[in-house]
Amino acid sequence: MDDVQKRIDELVKGNRVVLFMKGTADFPMCGFSGRAIQVLSACGVDKPTTVNVLEDEAIRQGIKQYANWPTIPQLYVKGEFVGGSDIMTEMYQSGELQQLLTA
Q: Residues 55-74: pLDDT tens digits?
């Protein structure tokens, strides 16, 4: 595991809820990242750990390899990959995301 993958792994496993996104929770830099923050907020997650991939190209590329998922944002809960904003929205609408976040 190279340094970037190790940094990502430590972030994912060291925080309960981690969102790799474009921008920040207060200032998302794309609509999908903004939607992901809104979904987390609707689930009662006010302060998720966020990683702005626009600040670190190595993380931006490395996160795609880490989960074998080509797009950003990416949500991790309790060390497990959940998905991007579309999957988050579907899980929220079904109630599954709320259950995952409160379990």
A: 999 999 999 999 999 999 99
Structural contact between residues 33 and 22, judged by C-beta atoms closer than 8 angstroms: yes
DSSP codes joined into one string, 26-64:
SSBSSHHHHHHHHHHHHTT--S-EEEEGGG-HHHHHHHH
CA 17/CA 50 separation, integer angstroms: 8
Of 34, 16, 30, the residue nearest 89 (C-alpha): 34
Nearest-angstrom CA–CA distance, 57 and 41: 27
CATH T-level topology, domain 3-96: Glutaredoxin (3.40.30)
Percent of the chain with pLDDT over 70: 99
Q: Cβ atoms within 10 A of the Cβ of 45, count? A: 21
Domain ranges of the chain: 3-96
Cis preceding linkage at 73, omega within 30: yes
